[in-house]
C-alpha cells in the first residue's frame, strides 16, 4: 500500500498556500486620493480659507461641466436650417445664455458648499467648525446633524465631510437614499443636457434637405407626424419640432433653477435656526418641524411663492428686452413650476429613501416634460386655431399618444384609486390579533383588490381610452393597436416578435421563481426560523441574529423576508412559497428537486446582471428589426411595471405575496426605499434612445449596450480581477472601467459587422464610451438611470 510522504503536502494545500502568499500582493490600491484639499491664509486677516472635495465628486463634476460647455458650444455653432420661416439666431443666443447661466450658478454652488472660512481659535464645543480638524476629518455634521458614518454606514475608509449635502425645502436626510454625495449636479445638469441633445438633433436634421423632408428616424414604420392643417399660421413638422425643442430647453433650465432655489432656501433657513452652528440633538434638521402637517403646509406655501416668482419673471422679461424662457408661454411656465415642485414632494413621500437629491430632480423633470406634452396635445386638439403648431418635444405620432396614455395613465389610475390601495396596505399591516373579526381580513382584502381591478379597467377603457381616441382622430386606440400589430414587414413579424419577448420573459421569471423557491425551502429546513414578537408590525422585516435567515451579508445587503411574511400574516397565501409541497416524496417532486440541486443559486450581483444580459437578448432583435414597434412595447412594459409595483407595495390580493417575494431576492443597497426601482431604471435605460427618437440605428442600441454588456462586464471583471480602485471611497476599479469601454466598443462593431448598425467613427465612439465608463466609476447615482442618458446625449452631440 502506497503511503504519503510526510514532507509532501496535498495539491489542494499547496494551492491554498500559494493563494494566501499572493494575497498581500493583490491588495487594492487607489488611483485618486480620498479628497482634494487646499488651504490658504487670507492676507491681512486671521482667517483661513479651505477647500475640500471628494475626488470622485470632483471628477464627476468636471465631466458634467465639460459636457455642458461642449453642448452649449455645439448649439451656438448650429447650422442654419433650410426652408424655415423664422430666424433662429435670437433663439440660439438666449438658449446659450440660459445654459451658460446655469453652468455658472452650478459652479458657484459647488465652490460655496465645499469652501470654508475659519478662525484660528478652536471651538471645543463645536468640532464641526474647528480649524484644528482637517476638512476631510470634519465628518461631524451635515445640515441635519448626522455624521458620515450614520449617513453611509457601509464606509470603512477615511470619513469625509458631509456639510456639502443639499436638501429640498422642508426635507430631512431620512427622506433620501444613502449615498456618498447628494448628486446635485445630476439634478441640475442632466435635464438641460438631454434637452440640448434633442435640440441638436432637430437643428442638424433641418439643415439637411433629405432629413428635413422626412423627420422620422430611419427604419421606423409608423404613420407620419401629425400637423395642424389650419390655424393662424401653421408651421411645418420640421419648424414645429425645432420650436418645440427650444421650448424643452427652456423647460429644463426652469426646472433646474427651481431645484437649485429649493436647495438654497433650505440652506438659508437651516442657517437661521442654527445660530450657534450646532446640530440638532436627534439628528434632524432644526429648520424642519417634526409635524408632517406643518411640513406640508410650509412646502405648499413655498411652492406657490416660487411659482409666483416664475410668473413674474416670465411676464416681465419681454418688457425688459430679455429672452429668458421666451419659448414657454405663461401658462406653461406656471403649470411646469407647480407640477415640478409638487412632483418632488410626492416622490419624497411615496418613494421614501428611494432617490438621491439629484435623481429626484432628473425623474421629476422627466415627469414634467411628459405632462407638458399632454397639456400641449390637448390644447392643440381643443383650440387648434389658437396655436401655430403642436408643441411636443418628440414627433407627434401615435406612438407618443400611446406613451402618454400608458405611462401617464398608469399613474393616474394609482392617484384616482388611492383609497383602495391605502386600505389594502393598512389591513395587510395590521396583526390579526388587533382585528375585531380576524376571519374577515382575507375577505376585506379580496373586496379591496376587486375594487381596484374593476376601477382600473373602467379608467383605462373609459377616461384614458376616450382621450387616446380623441387624439388619434376618432380612431379606436385598441383597434389601431391591433392593426398596427399586423402591419410589420410581414403580417406575422410583429406577433412573432411579441411571442419571442413573452417566451423569454416567462421562462426567465419561471426559472428564477423555481430557483428562489428551492433556495427558501432548503434555507428554512436547515436554519432556525426567527419568530417575531406579537407586537411587531406586519410590514417590518423581523429582527434577526447572527446566522438567521434575515441576516445581511456583504453580497446581499437587503435581508430576505420570505420566512417572516408567512408567520406574521402579511400575505396569507405565502405558505406555498416557503414550505415543502404536499406529497413531496412523489416521483415528480423528487426529480425536480434533484434537478434543482445541480443548478447553482447565484449571488445577488449575478442575479441582477442576469437580467442585464437578458435585456440584450430580448431587445437587440426588436431594435434592429422594428424600432417603432419596440418603442410601443417599452411603453406597455413600463405601464405593467407600475401596476406590478401597486400590487406588490399595497399587498393586493392575490398576487402581492408572489411579486414581493420575487422582487425581494434582487434588491441591493440602492433599493433601500419603500419603492423598488431597479427594474424601472433598467427598462428606462434600454428604452430612452427609442423614446428620444435616436437619429441613427447605432445610437438606438446605446442603453442596451451600456447596461446589458458594459455595466455587467465592468461589475464582473472589477470584482474578480480589479485591484486598482479609482478612490478609497469606492469599490469601482480601473480594470472594470476598461472592461466597460472595450466591451461596448466591440459590441458596437459586432452590430456593424452583422449589418444592423451604420458605419461610425470608431475613435469618437471609443472616446465617448471611455468618458461614460469613467463617469460610471466616479458617480454614486444610479447608473442604470443616468449612464444611458449621458452616453446617448454625448453620442448625439458628437456626431458619431
Automatic annotation (TrEMBL):
Region annotated Disordered, chain positions: 532-558
Residue ranges of the TM segments: 91-112, 184-203, 296-316, 328-348, 360-380, 400-426, 447-470, 492-513, 610-626, 632-651, 672-692, 698-717
Keyword Transmembrane: yes
Highest taxon of the lineage: Eukaryota
A Gene Ontology molecular function term of the record: dolichol kinase activity
Keywords, in A-Z order: Endoplasmic reticulum, Kinase, Membrane, Transferase, Transmembrane, Transmembrane helix
Gene Ontology biological process terms from the UniProt entry: dolichyl monophosphate biosynthetic process
Top enzyme category: transferase
Protein name in UniProt: dolichol kinase
Database matches in InterPro entries: Polypren_kinase
Membrane topology: Multi-pass membrane protein
Family from the record: Belongs to the polyprenol kinase family.
Compartment(s) where it occurs, according to its Swiss-Prot or TrEMBL record: Endoplasmic reticulum membrane
UniProt organism field: Schizophyllum amplum
Listed GO CC annotations: endoplasmic reticulum membrane
Entry EC number(s): 2.7.1.108
